[in-house]
Write a structure and sequence with these properties.
alpha/beta; 9-stranded mixed β-sheet; 7-stranded parallel β-sheet; globular
């Protein structure tokens, strides 16, 4: 081991401090090297149940010596980074990664035989509590797994904790047996909602009671139990993140679905377990998971009235000895040496070459990003760069047709797999590790490809993000993919050579036309199809356009100004500042509305939904929520939500008019136009210039074939807002109905100038082109759209038809070839193909 080692501790959530504390203390006491802590911003925990961050006063409470807290871990350049969760996106490139976990079970998220455990391959060492966990993980995890026990329990097993002293400190009777009540926080599992009677009805007064809540239990619940402890004799609320002392003095545990069950059981003491009637409602519920396989280790109950009886039986009846065997397999190191074992295994990594069996090949198309990717992954992968420039520390190849370069590279590398990436794109966190796992764990995967920003599947996955209060951006979506979809894959028949992973044997065993990349790529796909190897679309990986790295700084606010004096313009288009303002006062409704408005303007509907729920009684927030439902095509839900809200007495006239206009528009969409007119007229009566009302009335006129009045309303809107999408679209449709396709075309082009991915504008322009025979504009719009959505078959087919009409037969055939790779029976494609062949 090197004489001087730099250790970093990543503390994502505040309760992680007690998990990592024994390691920090051991390294300090033994003088093993330099120590530093990297943690999330503690402000996040003010409105996020996951309790991110680490407050300085909490750190000082647990450490009696100073440890540096750093903001830029890459500059610190640690040799080893310890973590206690699975957010590998935050520790990429931070030396050897050692994950010690934070429990014995984790509700389907951690010790799983399912594909979610693929993400653990991003670490270099996984430390697990017991042999059970090793067996759970070994099918999905191919990095070293060490059975080390749990460092946080070393104090319990070493015998250093004195029962009498702890009971005295907790003000509990030393002559009583002691019950530890330790429920989890998840609503689907927790015992807490079912404790509806005074606590002593369930737990008799002749027993001491220690209440230990989960580290992320909401504040209102914590306050309620604090009052219970203050008003009952021999009841203590343990507000320490460290549960060791509570374990040491307790004789029996009451819990539900929590890691503490098996931690407590390891002391060969009895447990009783609550089976919530709602547990199957948990999104990750799986009866085969580790938390349900061994629940018969104690008495079980589904109603708290059974607690008193089960406490008596557990404390008086003889235990089944087989329970101790299960306990010993959950915590397989019980001699107080877990901390030492973890540190020893971690330091051993420093003597090991941890390069993966995957070779990175970078196609240099952006020098800054090429250097950025090399820096991110050079400690885990051997890297080759195809470039006319020179990069240090990597193998270098000159620019040639891609397949020819790959054949040259595979002859010189030892790895069995390749990952090829064009550096005009950036990679989501830990992407090479995930791509490697797809090839390593699935025998029938011939090619693994990532999601591409803006493709249709990426859009769908964005809707499935688990942490719904995260803003939508390229970076946060990539993090969420890492967090949520590890190991997910879908077999697809088509892929583009932008970024992909494959076995090097696929290159060496195929005869390519080395000067024709496009044809060679098709030969590779054909080879995979022939060998019945699938192309796996990796949901856990995404590429997106590279943007230069910008260091963000917080705004400087002059001391003589208060936050409320800063104009809203300063924050209007800066989400980071809006969220910062909200973190300063999470209950300021004006600041929440500012954030909702920002998300609404930027069409970030998931975030609109989440923050609107925080103000369920506010007419503005609810209006935004209804519009969000409408934009997501949930029109009936939107109308139901609107109809249940008392908007008629809103004091702000403009907002009252907006509600009436929205009701009229929704009625039109629900084919109830006769009812809509009344509400539209009420909106215009209140505010004759309100755009929403004029749009609704214009649509009503259009439906009723009153073209002149409809156009008048649309033009009135454009006078105030020349780029109003809805007015431009409406005029385009109106001119189509009037057979004025040349004018209609101009309106649809104006829509696409605002957003070249606008499908309604694109469809309108294409329809006009068939009438005007002005195909050039439609062709340009379609090719632009396909840059974002390369596998959209209906657009490819439309473009092939446009090419056919212009007698551009080779371009038409090229689009049809792409369609046939996806779907040989695509409606009309084969007929058009034959027609082109006859004319070509």
């Amino acid at each position: 081991m090197p004489k001087y080692v730099k250790y970093l501790f990543f503390i994502e959530r505040e309760f992680h401090i007690v998990l990592l504390l024994p390691l920090i203390q051991y390294i300090h006491d033994k003088g093993l090297g330099q120590l530093a802590i990297y943690n999330m911003s503690p402000e996040q925990s003010q409105f996020n149940i996951s309790n991110f961050g680490l407050r300085k006063n909490v750190l000082d409470k647990y450490l009696d010596f100073q440890v540096e807290q750093i903001q830029n871990p890459l500059e610190y350049a640690p040799d080893i980074t310890f973590m206690a969760d699975f957010s590998y996106q935050y520790v990429e490139g931070l030396g050897k990664i050692v994950n010690i976990g934070h429990g014995t079970i984790s509700k389907g998220w951690y010790y799983s035989k399912k594909s979610i455990s693929v993400r653990e391959n991003c670490a270099d060492l996984l430390c697990v509590p017991g042999n059970i966990h090793l067996k759970q993980l070994e099918s999905q995890v191919k990095i070293p797994i060490e059975v080390t026990g749990m460092p946080k329990l070393d104090k319990v097993f070493s015998g250093t904790l004195k029962k009498e002293e702890i009971l005295a400190k907790m003000n509990l009777n030393p002559n009583n047996k002691t019950v530890l009540l330790a429920p989890t926080f998840n609503d689907e599992f927790s015992l807490i909602p079912y404790l509806t009677e005074p606590i002593r009805k369930y737990i008799p007064e002749y027993l001491n009671l220690i209440i230990k809540l989960h580290g992320v239990t909401p504040g209102q619940i914590r306050n309620a139990f604090k009052q219970i402890a203050e008003t009952n004799v021999n009841v203590c609320l343990c507000e320490d993140y460290d549960i060791s002392e509570s374990f040491a003095v307790s004789d029996i545990l009451i819990s539900d679905v929590s890691s503490v069950i098996y931690e407590f059981l390891a002391m060969h003491k009895p447990v009783i377990l609550f089976d919530s009637p709602k547990q199957k409602q948990y999104p990750n519920f799986n009866a085969e998971d580790i938390e349900y396989q061994f629940r018969d280790v104690g008495y079980r109950f589904s109603h708290p009235n059974k607690i008193a009886e089960l406490l008596f039986r557990s404390l008086t009846e003889k235990r089944d000895e087989s329970i101790n065997d299960i306990a010993d397999n959950f915590i397989s190191v019980r001699d107080g040496s877990s901390t030492e074992r973890v540190i020893h295994a971690a330091n051993a990594l420093l003597e090991t070459d941890l390069k993966r069996d995957l070779h990175l090949v970078l196609i240099d198309e952006n020098e800054e990003n090429t250097q950025h990717i090399i820096a991110r992954f050079k400690d885990r992968f051997h890297i080759s760069v195809i470039s006319d420039k020179t990069y240090e520390g990597v193998s270098q190849y000159t620019q040639k047709p891609l397949i020819r370069s790959l054949k040259e590279i595979v002859e010189k590398i030892d790895e069995n797999k390749l990952f090829v990436h064009h550096t005009r794109f950036d990679m989501s966190p830990q992407m090479p590790n995930f791509m490697n796992a797809h090839l390593m764990l699935h025998d029938k995967t011939g090619l693994a490809v990532p999601l591409v920003l803006n493709d249709e599947i990426t859009y769908q996955q964005a809707k499935l993000r688990v942490v719904l209060n995260e803003e939508f951006s390229t970076k946060t979506m990539a993090l969420q993919l890492t967090y949520s979809f590890a190991g997910q894959s879908l077999e697809i028949p088509y892929a583009e050579p932008l970024s992909f992973a494959l076995a090097k044997s696929a290159i060496t065993s195929t005869d390519f036309d080395e000067n024709n990349n496009e044809y060679s790529w098709k030969l590779l796909l054909a080879k995979l199809a022939k060998e019945q190897l699938k192309i796996s679309l990796a949901f856990d990986s995404m590429i997106y356009p590279y943007t230069p790295q910008v260091i963000k700084t917080k705004p400087v606010i002059q001391p003589n100004k208060v936050t409320s004096e800063i104009s809203s313009f300063d924050y209007q288009e800066n989400e980071e500042l809006l969220k910062q303002r909200l973190s300063e006062n999470p209950f300021d409704e004006k600041r929440i509305l500012d954030l909702i408005s920002y998300y609404y303007r930027n069409k970030m509907w998931d975030s609109v939904d989440v923050y609107s729920d925080m103000l369920s009684g506010d007419y503005q927030a609810v209006w935004y929520a209804i519009r969000s439902l409408e934009e997501q095509n949930h029109v009936e839900k939107a109308f139901d939500k609107l109809d249940k809200f008392s908007y008629q007495n809103i004091s702000d006239k403009t907002w009252r008019a907006k509600w009436y206009a929205l009701k009229g528009k929704l009625l039109i969409k629900l084919n109830r136009a006769d009812e809509a007119k009344h509400f539209i007229e009420k909106a215009i009566e209140i505010d004759a210039h309100l755009a929403e009302a004029l749009l609704a009335r214009a649509a009503w006129y259009l439906i009723n074939n009153n073209m002149a009045e409809s156009e008048k309303d649309y033009q009135s809107i454009l006078q105030d807002d020349p780029e109003n999408r809805y007015a431009l679209l409406g005029l385009g449709v109106l001119k189509q109905f009037s057979y004025d396709f040349i004018t209609a075309e101009q309106y649809f082009k104006a829509v696409l100038k605002i957003n070249d991915e606008d499908m309604e504008g694109l469809n309108g322009l294409v329809k006009c082109a068939w009438h005007t025979k002005n195909f050039e504009s439609a062709e340009n719009a379609l090719t632009t759209y396909l840059e974002y959505h390369p596998a959209k078959l209906d657009i490819l087919f439309t473009l092939s038809g446009i090419y056919y009409e212009q007698k551009k037969f080779s371009q038409a055939l090229a689009q049809l070839d792409k369609i046939f790779l996806f779907d040989e029976d695509f409606p009309g494609a084969r007929e058009l193909y034959q027609r082109i062949k006859q004319n070509f």
